[in-house]
Structures are given as C-alpha cells and as structure tokens.
Amino acid sequence: MERKFYHNAFATNGDTFVSLKIFHQKFEPFPIPHNAFDNLEVIFSDTTAKVNWNKPALLGGMAQGAWQQWVFEIRVEDAVLQNSTAIVNLTESSCVLQELSPNTVYKINVRAYNKAGKGPWCSQFIGSTFKSIDLRYTFPTIVWGTRDGLLQSNIVGDDIVSLLNTIKLNRMAVRDVTWFKDSIFINANYTTLFVYNTSTYSFSKISNIFSIKSIAIDWITPKIYCSNPVNQMISRMNLDGSHIETLPMMTLAKEIAVDANN
C-alpha cells in the first residue's frame, strides 16, 4: 500500500453516506509537506546570518489545527566557490548561520520534511555578508521606530534596547528616521521633527516644522530635506532647522532620498 498521499476522495453512487473513520497508522501516514513557502527572510552581518521563514501553507480543506510538526533543512551555498552546506533537523522556523565569510555572496534555500519525505525548496534568497567588522573600533547597529518609541539593535535585529520611549516623544508615533554622524532625526506623527544625539544624549525639537511626510539628509552640505504633504512641496534647512529653503517643485513625496554625490 502506498503510504504517501495528498488528498483522498470516495464516490458514494448517490447512496446515503454517514461517515468514514480510519485510525490505523497504515491508513494515516505522515503527510508530506506538499507546498513550498516564499517568505524566506535573511539578515546578514559580516560572519553570521539570521534566517526566518514560515511553515508551508496548508492544502485546501485543511484547518489550522492540522498536523504541521515539520522539521526543516537549510542549504547554504557560496555563490562564487559554489560550495554548499546543509543544516538539517531544525524544529524552529528560524536559524542563525555562523562562521560565514565576510564580503561574500550566499544563496540560501529552505524546505520542510519529515520521515515520509521532503517538500520542495522555497524560492532562493541571494545576499551578501558585510565586510569584516572590527568590534574593537566600531559597533554597527540598526535604529528603528515603533509604537513603543525609538529602538536600537545589532545588525541582525537582536539585543534590542530603547533609546527614546513614547513618553519622551509626547506619546507620538515614530513615522520616519534618518541620521547624520551621532544625531538621529525623528519624524513624529508627521507633524514634529525631533533630534537625538547618541553621544551627549541630548534631545530637542526642531522648530518651524508643522507638517512633514518624509525626511532625508544631504551628508555633504549638510542639510535636512523634508517633504510637506499639505503644501505638496520639498524644503531643506540646516541641521538646527534654520535657513529654510523651498525647492522649485510641487510634488506629494511619500519618500525622499538624497544623492549627495550628484
């Protein structure tokens, strides 16, 4: 008897059909993970990578309580040398890859399996590790805004600490963040621009800003660029908010970026 199955259908020839119950292990084998998943996420550092994914989608007709105790396999391949490594028997939908080479492009795949068989590989993720980081002199971090305020973590999203809570931000949500050297500029509620210095821990509000959709920094000048959704214009100013200039254009810019070199 074939132990593998995806779906079984029974014809009743129009007669009254009450129920069918099969409890024997031979008739209820482990299902094979039939579906792949396309939500593979990878964040690289210089020698590590944090990999996350979701379980395969259920087949049609299966409820959320259906058996899903899959184990997972990760395939990691050096895109240049084409050397691959497999990590198997993972029970969680995340994994931290160690001992990667700095400044190297990797191809990463994940699939689910069990003792009945293996499912298809997910879509391939291609990314590169950073150049070698000397932690004696530099400690790269990610700064991001949430409903809880301004947070900071390492470059793979771990070791999260709070820089500014919502009370300090007058209970306003962080909508956009940019930075220049040791200063972080915070767009709060699309109405207020704050600046926080990570060296002196000073915190202040930039005046004369009342409507702001997005912010960006010109590192060479240096200048702050702001998009105003009410006037549908883009303006620029010094880092302290002085000498505001309006650019000769009308646009409702939801996101702005500055190419300082050109």
UniProtKB/TrEMBL annotation:
SMART domains with a match to the protein in the record: FN3
Cleavable signal peptide: none
The keyword rRNA processing is assigned to this record: no
UniProt KW Lipid biosynthesis keyword: no
Any one Gene Ontology molecular-function term assigned to this protein's record: kinase activity
Residues annotated as domain Fibronectin type-III: 32-132
Pfam families assigned to the protein according to its UniProt record, in alphabetical order: fn3
Domain of life: Eukaryota
Alphabetical keyword list: Kinase, Transferase
Protein name (Swiss-Prot/TrEMBL): Proto-oncogene tyrosine-protein kinase ROS-like protein
Organism per entry: Leptotrombidium deliense
